[in-house]
Amino acid sequence: TVEFNNVHSVSEMPEDDDAKHSSYPRMFLEPQEKKRSVKALVVKRAKKTCSCTPAKVKDCVFSLLPVLQWLPKYKLKEYLLGDIMSGVIVGILLVPQSIAYSLLAGQEPIYGLYTSFFASIIYFIFGTSRHISVGIFGVLCLMVGQVVDREVQRAGYDLEPAALRAHADAVNTTISVVNQTSHHPFCDKSCYAITVGATMTFIAGVYQVAMGFFQVGFVSVYLSDSLLSGFVTGASFTILTSQAKYLLGLDIPRSSGIGSFVTTWISIFRNIHKTNFCDLITSLLCFLVLIPTKELNEHFKSRLKAPIPVELAVIVVATLASHFGKLRETYGSSVAGHIPTGFLPPRPPDWNLIPNVALDALPIAIIGFAITVSLSEMFAKKHGYTVKANQEMYAIGFCNIIPSFFHCFTTSAALAKTLVKESTGCRTQVSGLLTALVILLVLLVIAPLFYSLQKCVLAVITIVNLRGALRKFKDLPKMWHLSKVDTVIWLVTMASSALISTEIGLLVGVCFSMLCVIFRTQRPEAPLLGWVAESETYESLSAYKNLQTKPGIVVFRFEAPLYYINKECFKSTLYKQTGVNPVWVKAAKKKAAKRMLREKEVNSGGKLTSISVELVSEPLGFHTIVIDCCAMQFLDTAGIRALKEVCKDYREIEVQVLLAQCNPSVRSSLIRGEFFKEGEDHLLFHSVHQAVDFALGAQEHNRSCASK
């Protein structure tokens, strides 16, 4: 039982005169009894989980397949038009981006189309967000491409760009992908690359489904907005670097691993004299068309019913120009090559590759589900419906596991396409199904027509789509004004992701952001408080003017949990703010007493005389310290010990320490830590104002007793 004088000590406060001066009635707070033990609770949950009833089976099926819930309620007349428009437009935009991002992932263009097609269908079945567009995401493609390059090199394939292949060679490659395993001698570099990508995609999907099953979505809370933004911006520099060689038409190997950003640019400048001017001019012309049109789309997005599909137009025009101008034959421009129609038979991942890529798949899985969940929750809140974060992890996991059997690589939600989907009238997940139909049309009919498309055009499309991430530099002054710590986290994550590697950059960002949290609790704000006149409120003296202080009373607030990291900071800051270190005061008293004793002994001829220690020191400027504990979320054993030491040290120099506004967790920790011992008078109060009134009443009572 916690006894309050609002609040009194946990141990019985003795009924003496010192306890009777308070004007506040005594209160008793009894903690709630736990109705069930932990064992009973675990048994109950286990029975509930393991039970199997028709109703529970139905709930599980409907929970796992949300399409069975919302599709029967689909309002055809109200939703269909918006879903058709948004689905078709996003599909048109996805085609060129899927082809372009395939290069980033180290894959042939056809596999990017496969990935976008299967991801759209599977999310339609498993997803709960009505608006997000699931497909290829540039940062994940970069991370996949880096692992693919590493494994291709380990397998002994030549990393130098292969000579341009004829149509017959491409057909033979396609046959080898279908019929041979990754270790078969007839499986070429392209075949092995998609095997690595699909295997890593499978493992990333397994991780995501496991996170959903074990409900460990809390991992995403360690990826703050500033960290994710810095990571995406840093990865954007790496993406830009990896595509620069295509802009110049250079035939150089792709760098991977730590420091690939620097080594790639060194390689580019060493080979700058080999620039293909046909590719360079084509790249400049594409930039001149794409950037202004994209800016117009963004500027007039409120007036346009749908964005101008400029990327598709550029691809069509560039393909026609390359074909009829015979740029490949005349100038040696690198082209996309043959893109087969139809689908390849499914094939399982290469189980022998799993040990090589299992660790690489983990950050891909975390980034993928973090972006998907955050986007789905953001748009659900905006449009007034709810999404299930756990189901979103299942959905994005299945969007990776199932397509990995169909020669696909990793997917997640993508912000740019989601914004387009929302702005063009999307109402439900049916929009994603229509997007898949558009891609299916390309796969079955149109894909071979892109044979003469220059790779530099695809690189330009990829780089232009990085504008949003690179524009984050414009927000730095505003971010610095709002939070300097978040800005530093952004800069550290961005720099490490760009200059070291994407995976290490993510790890550095997470570790650095956690260190920032620790540092902020290690040296938190700890102001003295003053009284707001005609109220019961106490605020920081350093933050507000016209606050009053009570004579002889110091009010101190420590704005952080009190634990082993900051216990010394708590004590040193308290001593500094009050201007009194009790350890030093006691030492000074003892030293002065010894000196006076020696002087008295000399003056009295060797006869010792008792000296009162109180007479050898000057009186302090206060008699009570009130510690406002409202910002202390928790205490550990070191924090409890620090409070005990502070109370004991100040009591020895006749200064009383009162605790106010302790939450139940802190009070429980104090009880378990035996803070309230028999014979020791520790006081707790509901509010600072009550603690101050108590101290003033006690001082007045002591004065009246002394005068008598």
From TrEMBL:
This protein's UniProt keywords: Cell membrane, Glycoprotein, Membrane, Phosphoprotein, Transmembrane, Transmembrane helix, Transport
GO cellular component terms listed in the entry, alphabetical order: apical plasma membrane
One Pfam family in the UniProt entry: STAS
GO terms assigned for molecular function: secondary active sulfate transmembrane transporter activity
Catalytic activity of the protein: sulfate(out) + 2 chloride(in) = sulfate(in) + 2 chloride(out); oxalate(in) + sulfate(out) = oxalate(out) + sulfate(in); bromide(in) + chloride(out) = bromide(out) + chloride(in); nitrate(in) + chloride(out) = nitrate(out) + chloride(in)
Membrane-crossing segments per the record: 79-104, 110-126, 191-214, 226-248, 353-373, 394-416, 436-466, 487-515
NCBIfam families recorded: sulP (TIGR00815)
Protein name: Sulfate transporter
